[in-house]
Known about the structure:
By secondary structure, the chain is α/β, with parallel strands linked by helices. It has 3 domains: about 5-185, NAD(P)-binding Rossmann-like Domain (Rossmann fold, 3-Layer(aba) Sandwich), CATH 3.40.50; about 205-285, N-(1-d-carboxylethyl)-l-norvaline Dehydrogenase, domain 2 (Orthogonal Bundle), CATH 1.10.1040.50; about 305-385, Transcription Regulator spoIIAA (2-Layer Sandwich), CATH 3.30.750.190. The protein has 20 helices and 13 strands. It has an 8-stranded mixed sheet, with helices on both faces. Strand 12, helix 15 (about 370-380) and strand 13 (about 385) form a beta-alpha-beta unit. It is elongated and about 80 Å long. The two termini are about 35 Å apart.
Amino acid sequence: xxxxxxxxxxxxAGAMGSGIAQVAAQSGASVLVFDVSTDALGVSRQRTxxxxxxxxxxxxxxxxxxxxxxxxxxxxxxxxxxxxxxLVIEAIVENADIKAQLFERLEAVLRPEAxxxxxxxxxxxxRLARSLKHPERFVGMHFFNPATVMRLVEVISGAATDPxxxxxxxxxxxxxxxxxxxxxxxxxxxxxxxxxxFYAEAFAALNEGAAxxxxxxxxxxxxxxxxxxxxxTDLIGQDVNFAVARSVFDSYFGRTRFVPQLxxxxxxxxxxxxxxxxxxxxDYRNGNVQSDAVVGTAPDVRPEHRQAANALKxxxxxxxxxxxxxxxxxxxxxxxxxxxxxxxxxxxxLDWSPSEGIGPVGFAVSVADARDAALGTLAAxxxxxxxxxxxxxxxxxxxxxxxxxxxxxAVLERVADxxxxxxxxxxxxxxxxxxxxWADRLGRKVLVDxxxxxxxxxxxALYSPSQYLRNAA
Length: 473
């Protein structure tokens, strides 16, 4: 695969560019950080030195190593200084015209064999390369923020990219300690394409009044996610997240799987952009953040609750067990009322949750009297419960199923393979498991049946199972 590149430049001294430069320098490369703003260069230099000092204080680097890393870095405002670099990574504003101007200037400075890479998160590599004299040396190298922490790098080949160029960039990223995944040049690449349902489903649940925002986020944290989808959009910025949703939707000519959410558009229109504006889904003014989700008070745990809990541990969706005069089970895409008609008894319907999770778990009931059965069963599992509106697939199962659906489409369209997609979502989006690993945990036929039930129950074509999942099932 060749040797890693050792002479590197990063264009753009913002947080992302600074992080990429630090990663390269920590791995032994000589790095130039270029920006037209001397103020930005000063901030970048101080940010990098402060981060290195923290690593030394934590014992992750020795003082000598820290000084060597700083000695390999230089901050410059003269583009001509980049002439001897083997790889230049662009990390400037996400605007195709501005990037094109930079690439034109770089081609006049760099040697013919030097590689130009873009850290774009959504712009097509082929489109960015079309104005270049040597598009074969242009490639996408998409890092995730913060670049010093997140392990994923998507390596995107445009139509004209030389395969040897992409391979050398992949080798270099791996030498820098990253998981480098080759990706087809499609809108959103892997992560920003496959992850759309994580956000969209949360807004859909919120719009339907299925649960309060605090509850939705708590359910996903209990399922192993570091942050819930709504609080994550506040952190990313509602405007940024919505712009990506619009970009992917438009680039796929309005494909229903990628329909943007009006509830999020309303936040952007109101200027409620999340943490950076002081208000988004949650109110951050005066230091306020979301409150704890309200969980149900469990009744005394009775023997039938314990029996149901034991039978439902690691249960496949669609498994129902008797609990006194009613049934408790795990959603298979139908509502609690639908399951009650099938079983001819009241039903307490649980959302999917990992057996190792500690709660809370969402649930819905066909009749009010079934609430105690749900809470008692969950208490016997060592978990708490949050009552949800009775809806097809509830919240967590429906979201994870739709993530797997989007992942299936991506494999079918040769964006990446299953292993690459799972690695991308785990290392680029911090998911506790990849969508295919989750699909295998359920069983792919179970997943397909769940999606069919949600599609029928909602009347929405976007839940129709991917042909790839149908074939795999």
